[in-house]
Amino acid sequence: MPESNSVGIVTPQYVHIDKPLKLKSGTEISSYNLVYETYGSLNTGRSNAVLVCHALSGNHHVAGVYEDKPKSTGWWDNMVGPGKPIDTDKFFVIGVNNLGGCHGSTGPASIDARTGKHYGANFPIVTVEDWVETQAQLAEHLGIHQFAAVVGGSLGGMQALQWTLDFPDKVRHALVIAAAAKLTAQNIAFNDVARQAILTDQDYYGGDYYSYNTLPRRGLRLARMLGHITYLSDHSMASKFGRELRDGKFSFGYDVEFEIESYLRYQGDKFTDLFDANSYLLMTKALDYFDPANAYNGDLSAAFKAVRASFLVLSFTTDWRFSPERSRDIVKALLDNNINVSYGEITSTHGHDSFLMNDAYYHQLVRAYMKNIEV
Amino acid sequence: MPESNSVGIVTPQYVHIDKPLKLKSGTEISSYNLVYETYGSLNTGRSNAVLVCHALSGNHHVAGVYEDKPKSTGWWDNMVGPGKPIDTDKFFVIGVNNLGGCHGSTGPASIDARTGKHYGANFPIVTVEDWVETQAQLAEHLGIHQFAAVVGGSLGGMQALQWTLDFPDKVRHALVIAAAAKLTAQNIAFNDVARQAILTDQDYYGGDYYSYNTLPRRGLRLARMLGHITYLSDHSMASKFGRELRDGKFSFGYDVEFEIESYLRYQGDKFTDLFDANSYLLMTKALDYFDPANAYNGDLSAAFKAVRASFLVLSFTTDWRFSPERSRDIVKALLDNNINVSYGEITSTHGHDSFLMNDAYYHQLVRAYMKNIEV
Predict the structure, then answer these.
(1) Residue A3 confidence (pLDDT) above 60
(2) Whether B293 contacts chain A with CB within 8 A
(3) How far, in Å, CA of A119 to CA of A330, rounded?
(4) Are B128 and B29 in contact (CB under 8 A)?
(5) Yes or no, beta carbons of B189 and A234 under 8 Å apart
(6) Pathway, per Swiss-Prot/TrEMBL (chains A, B) (predicted)?
């Protein structure tokens, strides 16, 4: 149920971008759809627009609920709304589902007009840079020439970062939360195991499982279970689940025994009904590829030279997927360029998932930063 | 090739234990085979026997090589041999393949005499306590009434610990390396994802894949890939692989791109030819179940009350599977019982895998401890 300070009932909108998009992979997409939602109102000066970029398994439905679906609360409803840290009484907030996603924007499950079939694995690999380009097209469609802020956590934070690099004049503030300037070998390793689980599933059918009226459920489930382990901290798993047994004693078999097993399997099963496997592959590749310093021989400070935005960078102490160290690297590179950056390392037990939670200090920092943005 | 101080050419030996074994699960095994190897000679007083317990993917072949197979070096050849830290000039060292394994001891791939078929998934769940019981049977068969030391790393260390609990008079020293007194929720979570990968593989056939002349290769491969991520430290993966690309540039596809992907897939593929999937399931359950403090309301100090052995406990700083904190818990519980314990926390970049490696300080500590053992 939406709280009294929720944006309330929302309706997704669609835009057809009828402009060819040349992707970083070299492939061109002739046109595409984006589904998005907006909360609040665009002011006369068009100076109060805030773009929220989603992470791996997120989408355009950032806040509010759908009519007749009281449990359909947006993934960042605790952050975005009237009087909330990202205040929709002040800002015009936009959530968009990225290209390659599976919640309404053009993606692998969409029909490719050229073939009449699902794109499937033929959907091109998309990068964070490609997404920012499409988001810029959406902004233009909405008559927005500059964002007051671009905000995101995890992969969403990478998009916020990319905005300041690709469109330095179109973004005044970037909120980069629980993110990183690039993935480590360990990060990539986890993503590759998740991909291999999907790709080697006998029901993957080279990505064309739609034609077989099935989906690589086993693989997608494993991918999600694995993802969940990386989103939680060792500590929070221990305190939430420990070694609790579902039946209080060993059953000496391979069915669920420990509560953590029950939790993970439940999360895995649930996810296979909510997310497209091909989209999952694409999202992990976008994560793996993101590396703005690469064009500068690994020098992140050099990569930030043309940046003009101001930043709020936030990390969480028990996040071992994108540890505080990664955020510190971003902060230092920004400071090397005398960029205005506020940084907070928030004590939290909830690991990488912290960025989705309602931590008081975290929300106060975002609230203060957003309050300070002139529109 | 064996070094000049290797035990040299070795030959596995088999024993048929014709005594029923009542397992912790309640199931009884009427008889079973164990494959083992020995290095060095048992002295007249039978006081110099050392038992080496293997970990998840290990076996009885601890040191030396097989005739005509120069690359078949034992998994702990750098530790066990003439003049090595576990000196076979002084000790009679025994390596045994645990029940449920797949290297010659009775396990899921063995034929169940009662049915004439492979045990498959009908092979009962075995615990660390069960293994110690079988190892005691082997000792009796070899005329050994007391071990100078029981040694192991990881799951092997858990067995060493169990020996001091179950047979306090039969073990004088326990070397417990890179181990833990129980697994955490995160540990169990990783094991369960590995198990689910195998169990949901369409070629698992309820564990009876032998009858179908196949094996759950995809699942076992994923399990191994995942295991490898947990055996390496974030740091060592970064320095060994980083974000190196195999072809120097992105290929915008799902084949191997990053070197870490290449490494993991290679390890996964290799493993499916070397290890039985049902055995893998059993090994992970034994890990999950191990919890000596559980019978004492979680009080490890109480669990160690009857322990009489002396201990060397070793941990490695970057081991995030069984972190130093876990070893410290063991050490403190031993100290609570005024047990003679030596403890070393070894600075290493190699994560959990460190216990298999030739770190100078690590080997010096083991060497010193072993040298100090009276036989």
Answers:
(1) no
(2) no
(3) 36
(4) no
(5) no
(6) Amino-acid biosynthesis; L-methionine biosynthesis via de novo pathway; O-succinyl-L-homoserine from L-homoserine: step 1/1
